[in-house]
Amino acid sequence: MNRTRVGIIGGGPAGLLLGHLLDRAGIANVVLESRTRAYVEHRQRAGILEQNTVDVLRECGAGARMDREGLVHEGIELRFDRRSHRVDFPGLTGGRTVMVYAQTEVVKDLVALRAGPLLFEAEALAADPDAGVIRYRHRGAEHELACELIVACDGFHGIGRASMPSVTTYQRDYPFAWLGILASVPPSCEELIYAHHEHGFALHSMRSPSVSRLYLQVDPDDHLGNWPDERIWDELDTRFAVDGDWRLERGPITDRSITPMRSFVAEPMRSGRLFLAGDAAHIVPPTGAKGLNLAVADVTLLARAIISGDERLLAGYSEAALRRVWRAEHFSAWMTAMFHRDHGQDPFEHRLQLAQLRYTAASDAAMTSLAENYVGLPFQ
Ligand code: APR
Ligand code: PHB
């Protein structure tokens, strides 16, 4: 049987970063990823790195291209009542900012840096939390990998969580989804716009000075077939409409998808030799841009514990990670509730959202709370 110290299931951002942090500390590890390299490098997901994530990537030598090509953002815009309100991150948080740098690029950088074994098209079939053995299929044959520790970074649908003998899960499904597009057109704004509109939420984000990323709240059972390009742009125009000068530039749409929204947490994040990290343990709705950042926070904490060799740190991993997870769950659910329109929603709820948005825009205290959560609370 093959042996390693840490067997990592999943080569998304969580698994790849953990592997890299352990490589740098000289701790043998193997990353098993069920998909192809091209698939993981091109899967469109999030694009906002909070300050902690940027710091972690820089400190571990994975930040060079991010620093050259990423876009530092010092604020976001909240748009409602046909008016714009800026949230000034550095001014409200003692100088903290976020970086617009797509997850696809973080993944490419980490794959390129990889020193230890990283097997693509290697699907984990089972993980034994007591024995520390991963059974996996690679090139048509089944293998076993004996590990001191197993870390399941295999996303929401992975096998890691299912291999834990006892987990409690907490879940909330939302009555809406996001239709996301990538368009070959320069962003129509310098900073992200989060828009509240009676038709529903809209978000203007970006990937680079020539590529825009935009989202529309839609029903979870809606289909892309219902959304020809023209309808997407018209609806975006409607939801971003503002008094004064502003124009949404249109361009060719190069990627589109509809993603349902959910909040989910599994507790605890450890059983015996098996640890969970990233989407394997928790999902947040994308409104707070926290998914990728939580994955990075988990593996940073876990890497520190493994590298220290201090069993007390390993024993404390689940509790420490879950504190941060629940803060992000709250922030993401709060942002989601403030911006989205539930069709069954009564007019009372709509007015509560507007009252909260107006208060947030007018009060330094409320604005600071949003800003410090968005740029990410410092690690404990
Ligand atoms: N064996 C091997 N690999 C697997 C298995 C398996 N049985 N099951 C899933 N995987 C792989 C998936 O193919 C995927 O590449 O695990 C990886 C999990 O990656 P992500 O879903 O990206 O999860 P994570 O690394 O935790 O990243 C979390 O970043 O992806 C963004 O916004 C996303 O919030 C999310 C965050
Ligand atoms: C994105 O750019 O994909 C993005 C940005 C902010 C969010 C969610 C997604 O809140």
Strand content: 25-35%
What's the shape? Answer: globular
Largest sheet: 8 strands, mixed
CATH homologous superfamily identity of the domain at 3-72 and 99-171 and 262-341: FAD/NAD(P)-binding domain
What's the Cα radius of gyration?
21 Å
CATH topology of the domain at 3-72 and 99-171 and 262-341: FAD/NAD(P)-binding domain
Under the CATH scheme, the architecture of the domain at 3-72 and 99-171 and 262-341 is: 3-Layer(bba) Sandwich
* CATH classification class of the domain at 3-72 and 99-171 and 262-341: Alpha Beta
SSE pattern, N- to C-terminal: EHEHEHHEEEHEHEEEEEEEEHEEEEHHHH
Average pLDDT works out at 97
Bound small-molecule species: adenosine-5-diphosphoribose, P-hydroxybenzoic acid
Kindly state the number of beta strands. 19
Q: Total number of helical segments?
A: 11
Work out the oligomeric state of the chains in this entry.
single chain
* SS-derived structural category: alpha+beta
Stretches where pLDDT falls below 50 for ≥5 residues? none
Distance between the termini: 39 Å
Helix content: 25-40%
Task: Describe the model.
The protein has 380 residues and is of the alpha+beta class. It has a domain at 3-72 and 99-171 and 262-341: FAD/NAD(P)-binding domain (3-Layer(bba) Sandwich), CATH 3.50.50.60. 36% of the residues lie in helices and 31% in strands. The chain contains eleven helices and 19 strands. It has helices spanning 13-24, 37-42, 51-59, 64-69, 89-93, 103-113, 229-240, 291-308, 311-339, 347-362, 364-375; strands at residues 2-9, 29-32, 48-49, 71-73, 75-80, 83-88, 98-100, 118-119, 122-128, 133-138, 141-152, 168-183, 192-195, 202-208, 211-218, 253-267, 270-271, 274-276, 282-283. The strands form three sheets. Strands 1, 2, 8, 9, 10, 11, 17 and 18 form an eight-stranded mixed beta sheet that branches. Strands 6-5-13-14-15-12-16-19 form an eight-stranded mixed beta sheet. It has a three-stranded antiparallel beta sheet with strand order 3-7-4. Helix 8 packs antiparallel against helix 9 and helix 10 (347-362) crosses helix 11 (364-375). The radius of gyration is 21 Å and the shape is globular. The relative contact order is 0.17. The mean pLDDT is 97. The structure holds adenosine-5-diphosphoribose (APR) and P-hydroxybenzoic acid. The site of P-hydroxybenzoic acid has 10 residues, from strand 14.
